[in-house]
Design goal:
Layout: H1 2-15, E1 29-34, H2 39-58, E2 63-67, H3 68-81, E3 87-89, H4 97-107, E4 111-113, E5 139-143, E6 145-146, H5 157-161, E7 165-166, H6 169-181, E8 186-190, E9 201-203, E10 209-211, H7 217-225, E11 232-236, H8 245-253, E12 260-262, H9 270-276, H10 282-295, E13 300-307, H11 314-327, E14 331-336, H12 354-377, E15 383-391, E16 399-403, E17 408-411, E18 421-429, E19 433-438
Parallel strand pairs: 1-2, 2-3, 3-4, 5-8, 8-11, 12-13, 13-14, 17-19
Antiparallel strand pairs: 6-7, 9-10, 15-16, 15-18, 16-17, 18-19
Helix pairs in contact: 7-8, 11-12
């Protein structure tokens, strides 16, 4: 979501006649897009703001802006501590950036725009999409929802991105169609919980409301599947409580929808899941995974795991380890809990000591890495469809791309394969994916 927001900001700036700077020291405008999902990204922002202070001192006319989730969460604090910041722009106010820059240029006043939509169904609460910066791209993110209504106890997102709002289906299909016409071959439909997508009503020219197309996420996938030029469809993130049979069947029958789902489990213990306010049990999660694997054999399942949540006992943590062993995820993003101001969990009693959280995280990482290697090793010798993205950054002598299961494959081959779908046989397994040979 943040990558797409940065893309939109770049498009707005280029629409003003600005162009990307080769070096940050040459820039006239710097917009720092931020994240608040964990403490570490915010620490990086504070460090970067220190660097930008020195640039501003050397170049007083430089315009510095802070955007995104941290701006939304801590905008006034950022203003107080960073006199060199000219703009503070929240998650729902991105399209105001050009007018704010013009006002700073004329008045040299420090400005902020931090309003969030009041109602999820309000059409004005959906941002206006801008033309994407840059030329042809092989892959693209396409938001289908903004905001979140789940309010998990550890998560700041509902507070900094507002109520969940779904984009109209026809607008999404139109954007994907435009991408396909410009050479994009893979789209990833994104939202905090794509499974809860519901197409909204639009005002027709006559002023009458009308429904546009199917009303759920499975219907949206079917509509995007029909777009010419697009060869692959991915989506993220899915919530286990909203993973419907219709969505599972859509993954099974729609040829462009890739056989991969990111399905955060967070914990394998029901007591912990209850305190997290996740809205499902381990038994429900296991049943959904079983239904998915029955309908989509070989589907890759990745996840998020959060250990050291307030009140997590040794037994509850062991239950998470057992769940990981039973499910055997292809890979996982794994974290130790740290409290985020403004979330319910920050004030929970029985906070787990940081050292215990680190120890549990290390055990989870070791277990999941072992499983990832075993899963990948079992796929050596198989042939996969790979969307070739070009030379690997780490080894320019090899090409790189992703399987439909979202695993990286590096392999020797001519650069002319870039942008094509290649059949690649895996020859080596690694944590990141595979080494292979093109057929």
């Amino acid at each position: 979501m943040n990558e797409d927001d940065s893309d939109q900001i770049a498009g707005l700036l280029m629409g003003m006649g600005l162009r990307p700077a080769e070096d940050v020291r040459e820039a006239d405008v710097i917009m720092l897009n931020t994240c608040s999902v964990r403490a570490k990204p915010e620490q990086k922002v504070r460090s970067k703001l220190g660097e930008l202070r020195a640039l501003k001192e050397a170049k007083p006319e430089l315009i510095v802006g802070v955007c995104g989730c941290m701006a939304q969460r801590a905008g006034e604090a950022i203003r107080r501590r960073n006199a060199h910041v000219d703009l503070i722009v929240g998650t729902a106010q991105i399209e105001r950036i050009p007018e704010m820059i013009c006002e700073v240029l004329s008045t040299r006043r420090r400005l902020s725009a931090l309003g969030l939509p009041r109602a999820g169904e309000d059409e004005a609460s959906l941002p206006t999409r801008t033309e994407r910066a840059g030329g042809r791209r092989l892959k693209a993110f396409v938001p289908i929802t903004y905001g979140c209504d789940n309010f998990c106890a550890y998560c700041i997102v509902p507070y900094v991105r507002g109520k969940e709002r779904s984009r109209p289906l026809d607008e999404i299909v139109q954007e994907v169609t435009h991408l396909g016409e410009r050479g994009c071959r893979e789209v990833t439909l994104i939202g905090q919980n794509v499974n809860s997508y519901r197409s909204s009503e639009r005002r027709a020219a006559s002023g009458e409301s009308r429904h546009i197309g199917p009303a759920d996420f499975a219907g949206l996938l079917a509509a995007v599947n029909g777009v010419q030029g697009i060869q692959r469809i991915r989506f993220t993130t899915s919530h286990p409580k909203d993973l419907s049979d219709r969505l599972i069947q859509a993954m099974a029958r729609l040829p462009k929808v890739c056989e991969h789902i990111h399905l955060p489990i967070q914990s394998g213990d029901n007591n912990t899941l209850g305190r997290m306010r996740r809205g499902y049990t381990l038994e429900h999660y296991l049943e959904r995974v079983s239904a998915l694997r029955a309908a989509v054999p070989g589907a890759a399942i990745t996840t998020d795991i959060l250990v050291g949540f307030p009140g997590e006992t040794d037994e509850e943590f062991e239950n998470t380890l057992r769940a990981i062993e039973e499910i055997r995820f292809d890979s996982a993003f794994m974290f130790a809990f740290n409290p985020i101001a403004g979330t319910a969990a920050a004030g929970f009693p029985d906070q787990v000591p940081a050292e215990v959280g680190k120890q549990r995280l290390q055990r989870v990482i070791e277990l999941q890495n072992q499983i990832t290697l075993e899963v990948n090793a079992a796929q050596v010798g198989q042939t996969f469809e790979v969307l070739v993205e070009g030379p690997s950054q780490k080894d320019p002598k090899r090409l790189t791309g992703l399987t439909r299961g979202n695993k990286t494959v590096n392999f020797p081959g001519p650069v002319e394969l870039t942008g094509s779908l290649a059949r690649v046989r895996t020859t080596e397994a690694h944590l990141y994916g595979f080494v292979g040979e093109v057929l």
